[in-house]
Design brief:
Layout (H helix, E strand, L loop, with lengths): L1 H5 L18 H21 L1 H8 L1 H15 L2 H7 L6 H33 L4 H34 L3 H21 L10
């Protein structure tokens, strides 16, 4: 999202699908700082209440759906009429950014709980594997999505298909979790 947020607004109608909001670094930095503070508040006061109410499996699936929904923010902004006031588009992107932060908050908390419960024996090993997988995703994710975003702009002259694809692919694991995951609490026999 930061790359899209900083991409200049297209002045020609045929390039509208390739434009972002043209925000400066300070605005994007403020957005990231605000969502970071909100994320801390969410972690302290809300996340574990959601997990205790829905269970970690359902919460993890919900987090994946929320993250996928956030990907539809840029296409919605691009489909709005060109005379839409800038604060409306910025507000929508603030909501999308906040959804990403909230979903990651819930994902990390539930992933730790689930990996601890899923592996018999020492929970430290399962948590270590979980953190290694998260680190791999944090490294490869921006590389692959940056490449896909660039190709979407280069080949299709629009980033809308990219963000719609991210939304659909992001929702797919949530669907699989809701359909295929065993009921919580898990009972692992050793």
């Amino acid at each position: 999202l930061p790359v899209w947020l900083s991409t200049p607004i297209a002045t020609q109608a045929e390039l509208r699908g390739s434009s972002g909001l043209g925000l400066g670094p300070s605005v994007i930095g403020n957005l990231q700082s605000t969502t970071g503070v909100g994320n801390i508040i969410l972690a302290l006061f809300v996340t574990y209440r959601i997990i205790n109410t829905l269970g970690p499996v359902t919460t993890f699936g919900l987090a994946l759906f929320i993250n996928a929904a956030a990907a539809f923010g840029p296409p919605i902004v691009q489909l709005m009429p060109s005379n839409t006031p800038e604060p409306v588009a910025l507000s929508l992107m603030c909501i999308s950014y906040s959804l990403v932060a909230a979903s990651r908050n819930m994902m990390f908390a539930t992933a730790l709980m689930l990996s601890k419960e899923a592996a018999p024996g020492a929970p430290g090993v399962a948590i270590g594997i979980n953190q290694s997988a998260c680190s791999l995703g944090a490294g490869l994710g921006p590389l692959l999505t940056g490449f896909a975003y660039t190709q979407s702009l280069r080949l299709l002259r629009s980033c809308t298909p990219f963000f719609i694809g991210v939304g659909i692919l992001g929702a797919l694991p949530g669907v699989l979790i809701q359909v295929m995951a065993p009921a919580w609490p898990w009972r692992i026999s050793v």
